[in-house]
Design goal:
- By secondary structure, the protein is an alpha+beta fold.
- 22% of the residues lie in helices and 50% in strands.
Length: 122
């Protein structure tokens, strides 16, 4: 299993779907998935997508600076991905962000078990 390739493919897919329409992210989450967005926690795919869809901007573009990936279990059933980059909402100035994902294996693919997002301000 090529963890770097999985992380790269996931990262590209996630941020392209986020930009195309946050509702497109629903298939990536499960009822027990968790999101921490700027310190606020949400559980369950529907609650997560609802929160992401209600964020106060229309357009967003992510520019990934780095991503790192590691297995987070001995049997390789979960992967940890750390992403840093810049985002631009509604054409305003770029903001630095970091996001951490734990992906869990499900059949031949992965879903987002944990997702933590922070703007890096200051």
């Amino acid at each position: 299993m090529d963890i770097t390739a999985i992380a790269k493919n996931f990262t590209e897919f996630y941020y392209s779907q986020f930009a195309a329409g946050r509702g497109n992210l629903a298939p990536l989450y499960r009822p027990h998935s968790m999101l921490t967005w700027e310190g606020k926690q949400f559980q369950g795919g529907s609650n997560i997508v609802e929160h992401l869809s209600e964020l106060p901007f229309q357009t967003v573009a992510h520019k990934i600076s780095t991503f790192d990936a590691q297995p987070s279990s001995l049997d390789m059933s979960t992967l940890l991905i750390n992403v840093t980059g810049l985002l631009r909402v509604d054409g305003d100035q770029e903001l630095q962000f970091s996001q951490v994902f734990v992906l869990a294996k499900e059949g031949d693919s992965f879903y987002v078990l944990n997702d933590m997002f922070r703007l890096n301000l200051g």
